[in-house]
Design brief:
The longest helix has 15 residues, at about 350-365. The strands form four sheets. An eight-stranded antiparallel sheet has the order 14-11-13-12-16-17-15-18. The chain has eleven helices and 18 strands. It has helices at about 25-30, 85-90, 110-115, 150-155, 190-195, 195-200, 235-240, 295-305, 310, 350-365, 390-404, and strands at about 15-20, 40, 55-60, 65-70, 75-80, 95, 130-135, 140-145, 165-170, 175, 175-185, 205-210, 215-225, 265, 285-295, 315-325, 340-345, 370.
């Protein structure tokens, strides 16, 4: 049986079967009978984090549930729901999520389990929004884990290794509007000299570059909440004026798939870079990402620039952004504010494979933690980068023993 490929096209799943239960009861009955089960979300991971030689388990056919609890400022949502499906319904009810990833096509459970993030100096990854998890263990037991329980911080970013998540409760904030403005052709030296001020320009800030001109970043996307007051003017700080018209993060591509720039709009249609109705980015691609402690951001960016001539021919675009610290054991932002260095490569598996060891070697001195859903080439996890790794392994062993 061929389960097929991931969204980007770089990975063919090795699973022997794909099961798609239509109820939680069916899922609970199935899981104990399956070989080495692993949950599968929207197939947006580029690594084998969501693969197995056994059975892939999709929750995409479970009943879709979105239940807003305004009194508690929470929403209960079924795990396979995509952020682009959830967000407009929350907005209609007067609520919002504090942050979103760059594309709304991701399933909630998959994004949470891999520590996927958006951007913002004071905004944590999407996993930090989780208040509770509803799960079915691989032994078929229904469980619920809430924030504040001893195992909770090890359960949220779990890489799909502990159970199958069927629903999540997420924190809500009152709805808000955002205006995003794109600034082009900014001096990299200027960005690095004022990096903290640049990432403080908006509620969410993303820096894009193709590394074809090593001394310049192609675009800076500044997303400001309407009504917020900011200390710096982007034009003064970046020394360039806003772009004349809509822009795609990849220079030269049709900007129609991107969220609107230059005019205020709802949070869910401005915080992502792409719109739900379109294929995000360029479609066929490979993604890699490393997150370094914030104090190493400038040095890590310069390390990447030293490989610009090798990177540029393989690259569609690189995105640089900030993420706030959290306390989730396997999160790339555990215990420290981080700066993310993201790479969207052309679908050239051999070329990317050849480059990654060099890129990883340049980033290793800066305690770079890889995003588990992206492609990297280190043979084994550097457990020294995760202070709670031993605790998570003990948790995994305990859950495995309990459900065997």
């Amino acid at each position: 049986m061929t389960v097929g490929k991931n969204w980007g096209g770089n990975l063919t799943y090795s699973a022997s079967q794909l099961v798609e239960p239509t109820s939680v009861a069916e899922l609970a009955a199935l899981l104990p009978t399956l070989p080495d089960p692993r949950p599968l979300g929207s197939r947006h991971s580029f690594s084998r984090v969501a693969d197995t030689a056994g059975a892939l388990v999709s929750t995409g056919h479970l009943p879709r549930e979105i239940e807003v609890d305004s009194a508690r400022a929470l929403v209960r949502v079924s795990s396979a729901t995509r952020y682009g499906e959830l967000a407009p319904l929350l907005d209609d009810a007067g609520w919002a999520l504090a942050n979103l990833a760059s594309l709304p096509h991701l399933s909630v459970a998959g994004a949470v389990a891999t520590g996927t993030h958006g951007s913002g100096d004071r905004l944590g990854s999407l996993a930090t929004q989780v208040a509770a998890l509803e799960l079915v263990t691989f032994g078929g037991e229904l469980r619920r884990v809430e924030r504040g329980e001893p195992d909770f911080a090890g359960m949220v970013v779990s890489l799909g290794r502990l159970a199958v998540v069927t629903a999540l409760e997420l924190d809500l904030v009152p709805t808000f509007e955002v205006v995003q403005t794109v600034y082009e052709h900014v001096s990299l030296d200027r960005v690095l000299a004022h990096l903290d001020s640049v990432t403080e320009l908006g509620y969410s800030v993303s820096i894009f570059t193709t590394w074809t001109v090593p001394d310049q970043v192609d675009q800076v996307w500044v997303k400001r909440r309407v009504g917020d007051v900011h200390a710096a003017d982007p034009i003064d700080l970046l020394a360039v004026r806003p772009a004349a018209g809509q822009r795609h993060p990849i220079p030269g591509l049709d900007p129609e798939p991107t969220t609107e720039q230059g005019r205020p709009g709802p949070w869910w249609d401005r915080l992502p870079h792409f719109r739900m109705a379109f294929t995000p980015s360029a479609g066929q691609e490979i993604q890699s990402e490393w997150l370094v402690p914030r104090q190493h951001a400038t040095a890590a960016i310069l390390a990447v620039r030293s490989l610009a001539a090798r990177i540029a021919p393989l690259l569609q675009v690189s995105e640089l952004r900030s993420v706030a610290a959290d306390d989730l054991w396997l999160s790339p932002a555990y215990g420290t504010d981080v700066f993310a260095l993201h790479f969207t490569w052309h679908l050239d598996v051999a070329g990317v494979d050849a480059l990654l060891p060099q890129l990883e070697a340049r980033l290793r001195p800066y305690q770079a933690r890889p995003h588990p859903g992206k492609v990297h080439r280190e043979a084994e996890v550097d457990t020294s980068l995760y202070p709670r790794w031993a605790d998570w392994m003990e948790l995994r062993q305990r859950w495995t023993a309990a459900t065997a």
